[in-house]
Prior knowledge:
It comes from Micromonospora craterilacus. This protein is an alpha/beta fold and 284 residues long.
Amino acid sequence: MISALPTLFDQRGAVDLDATKAAYEGLADAPVDGVFVAGTTGEFTTLSDEERLAVCAVAGAVFGPERTYWHVGAASTHQAGQLTAVAVDQGARRLAALTPYYFPATESALLTYYETVVARAAGVPVYGYVFADRTTTTVPPELLGRLAGTGLAGVKISGEGSAAVATYLAAMPDPQIAVYSGADLEFAEVVGIGATGVVSGVSSVLPAPFLAVRDALRAGDAVALEVARERARRAVVATRHGNLAHLKAVLELRGVAASGLRAPLDGISPADRRALATDVADLL
């Protein structure tokens, strides 16, 4: 169970590293297996390279290098390669790279992209990340299997249900390649078909329900799993499936400084904020 972390901003819109660190420290006591930093939940497309690396470094200091996945994906192979090299120099021991975005990448370009990132990582594990709905780059299962063959340690698949994840699993050239889903609600389903687990945005602010799902799966406790899954479902629904404004409002309920959004999205309304506080009161 890997938590996808938000990035916090001050009232002027600048990255607030102190507030970001406080949010991460609030999660660090929870026994999450890892954290995914500066990804979609972290609003990475709104960050400069320097800001992104600084946020990842904060997470690495809080969670330790072995639990921290630095996101180095970029719109171009050139930028992703540079981010990769600097991240490794700064102590990254886990890397993740979204496919190129905006321009729909060709197969040959994708192979070059991941070959470059893996080479610049110099032995540090790299995890691929596909999210067709957000990137315009479509990666069918057979192609993802070829991309994994460039030396990826694993892949994250977002925007797809467990049935699609199963087809990606079947295409992996090596069963040791970790496969994660970005679907918070399908933790049990994807593990049931053989995936490694989930990378969950909602768990970054409400970790307890998802940790309970993980622990019930590990223990093979069907009764505990049913209870935990319902609580996790409630967390996802209450936060509007990981809406960034709602996630940051939950952090405020946990005592973290208020943060605005850089992403071009609406903030949470007063009425929604009140409803959210009621809905998650027993999940904090």
